[in-house]
Amino acid sequence: MPTVQFGHHQVHYELTGEPGQPVITFLNGLTQNANLWKSYADYFVPRGYRVLAYDMLGQGRSSKPVIDIKLAMHADLLDHLLEQLDIEKTHLASISFGGIVGLDFAIRYGHRLHSLTAMSTFAELTQQLDLLGAVMLQGLAEVGLPYLQSMLYPMNMSSDWIAANRERIPAMKRAGYIGNDGYAMQNLMESFVEFQPLTPDLHKIKVPTLIMNGEFDFFTPRECHEVIRSKVKNSRLLIIQRAYHAFTLEMPAVTMRQLEIFLDQVSTKTWQGDQSVWIAADDPSAEVQWLPCAGDWMRAVQPATVPPATKAPARRKAPTRKKAP
Amino acid sequence: MIDPALYDQARDRIAAAGFTPEIQTKITLLLCTAKNGNLMFHSGVQWMQNLNVVQQFILSQYSRELEAVTLLSRTTQWSKDPALAMEGSRIVAPLMLAWGQIMLPPGPMLNPQAAYRGISLGHAQLARIRLLPVIPENADPLNPFVVALQRIEQENGRMLQTQIRLLKNIATEIPVEEREALVEQDQELVDGVFNDFLNWLAAP
After folding, report:
1. Which domain holds residue B116?
2. Cα–Cα dist B130/B152, whole Å
3. A-chain residues near B179 (CB < 8 A)
4. Residues of A whose CB is below 8 A from B178
């Protein structure tokens, strides 16, 4: 099991692909681990990349400190890991909890990046996120890890995915229960107590940045990604159609294709970071993959402009109720 | 670190054999040793000076560990095979030894290092000894032993909050790195015992 020492902690990692090829590093969400990027390695390695995935502190087979993990420590750890593996620069693709680490890394260690992909993430806690985080932590502490797991499936995945995988969910929960430790997850969540918004420093991110957000992600909705888009000049926002929070797991083919296009643009220097907003094609084999977004991307509905002469449809009058005797 | 394959082997064994008296006895021997060690420690520290609000949590954990031991002991269908008790004692010996060291005179009430170690070992036990993954899908959810295991594991998660808060916030002169190292050391100890235990549980 390949590991790197970070202070007195062990960090488990998986590095696949030929040395000398450009590296893509993947950063996990809160309850994820390095194994979940295996299909991404299978996709990108034959396309000439090396893929690095690792369990962050508190996850999977890496050390799970009890006492303290500062949020900033995760970006420091990534810098150390790249150093130990002799990787000077990497493309960084990060999701959710890992997305915050990715943003922090791009702010403080931008010189180590070719590009940044920030998926389903946020730079500051909105009021909704703050309360959601608090209720997740409460559930974990007062009811337990199985409760948090049960809560995360409907928050992360679509009804279609749940319907298709309903039978497998107990086995997936069991595997997650074995691989994760409630106290370690709690420690990661409690590191947000001292979380300072990254928004004031987002302008320091200079590398090409692709921001990806699921169309129906209600956990980290559009407003979270809009903050990043509006502050990072060299960015584009790409909306994944009909996707929820964990689209890297639910729609890997679509995600890999979008990532591949972005990385191609960066390596061929055709990337245009103009803060524009795009919609990813549903079909990863479609000829045109990025469709311009018409209308207000912050809205869930697009009201048509009503010409002033048009009469509003007549409303049916509610029946008057007779007074009870 | 606990090998995930061991959970599968133990679960498959229980799925095939059912919760036999031998399997129930093995589980109860492990859990009761762990809980009796934690109980002994809590009885030793509950009257420490300046505990303030923590005293309530310590007394509460003491009572809940006592409940868990009682619940498990009365729902277990005990095996009559004394060899099980002997092999069980061998497997849990490192835990008994560690608790014994913590309780050595002058005891945790007067020895801050031993008090910290007791909290740390209690944390490792509550966090790492987890038996829900060995309960097979075909187990009767109303089987009293299965119900007891589920309740105990859920309660372990709640009780663990006391250890987490104390490990993070206790006023101590032990530096953070040393404390983390101590906690990791105890986790390795508990993981070693639990790995051995899962192997034993999976054995025919």
Report:
1. 4-202
2. 10
3. 67
4. none
Kindly list the residues from chain A whose CB atom is less than 8 angstroms away from the CB atom of residue B168: 66-68
Note the pLDDT tens digit of each residue in A170-208: 999 999 999 999 999 999 999 888 899 999 999 999 999
Asked if the peptide bond before residue B105 counts as cis, ω within 30 degrees of 0, the response is no
Residue A215 has pLDDT above 70, yes or no: yes
- What pLDDT is recorded for position B21? 98
What is the per-residue pLDDT for A295?
87
* pLDDT single digits (tens) A104-124: 999 999 999 999 999 999 999
Cα–Cα distance measured from residue A117 to residue A94, given in angstroms and rounded to the nearest whole number: 6
At A113, list the tokens: 């990046």
pLDDT of residue A324: 47
Give the mutation candidate from A66, A68, A190 for the B interface (greatest B CB count, under 10 A).
Answer: A66
Confidence of residue A317 (pLDDT cuts 50, 70, 90): low
B168 contacts A66? CB cut-off 8 A: yes
The answer to whether the CB atoms of B164 and A177 lie below 8 A apart is no
Asked if the C-beta of B149 comes within 8 angstroms of chain A's C-beta atoms, the answer is no
Say whether B164 and A186 touch across the interface (CB within 8 A). yes
Strand order in the sheet with A209-214: A3-6, A9-16, A50-54, A23-27, A90-95, A113-119, A209-214, A235-240, A277-280, A290-292
Residue A62: closest C-alpha in chain B: B1
Q: What token pair was written down for A9?
A: 């902690």
- Nearest Cα neighbor of A125 from A56, A79, A71, A75 is A71
Inform me whether the C-beta atom of residue B175 falls under 8 Å from chain A C-beta atoms.
no
Which chain A residues touch B2 with a CB distance below 8 Å? 178
- DSSP conformation class of A111: G
Contact assignment for B7 to A183 by CB distance below 8 Å? no
The structural domain count of chain B equals: 1
B184–A contact, CB cutoff 8 A: yes
Strand partners, A24: A51, A91
Give strand pairing partners of A290.
Answer: A280
DSSP state of A41: H
Per-residue pLDDT at A318: 57
Pairing of strands A90-95, A209-214: unpaired
Return the CATH number of the domain spanning residue range A3-292. 3.40.50.1820
Chain position carrying tokens 């034993």: B200
3-state secondary structure A197-217: CCHHHHHHCCCCEEEEEECCC
